[in-house]
Specification:
Shape: globular
Number of domains: 1
Helix content: 40-55%
CATH superfamily: rRNA adenine dimethylase, C-terminal domain
Structural class: mainly alpha
Distance between the termini: 19 Å
Low-confidence stretches: none
CATH class: Mainly Alpha
Length: 62
């Protein structure tokens, strides 16, 4: 579910960094990741999944 929402949000708005594009999926407060400063098209599939897994882990740890 997060993968589908993340991909849609990441690629839905052109030229936005992932930090701004993924705000719609409610990033955990204070969450930071090196990939958030990139655009969705700059990441490979594995990197995108890694980022979304880190977001999911950040939600679980709270």
């Amino acid at each position: 579910k997060l993968l589908k929402r993340g991909v849609k949000a990441g690629f839905g708005q052109r030229r936005k960094t992932l930090r701004n594009a993924l705000k719609v999926i409610n990033l955990p407060e204070g969450f930071d990741h090196p990939y958030l400063s990139k655009r969705a098209e700059q990441l490979g599939y594995e990197e995108f999944v890694e980022l979304l897994n880190a977001i999911e882990d950040g939600r679980v740890e709270r």
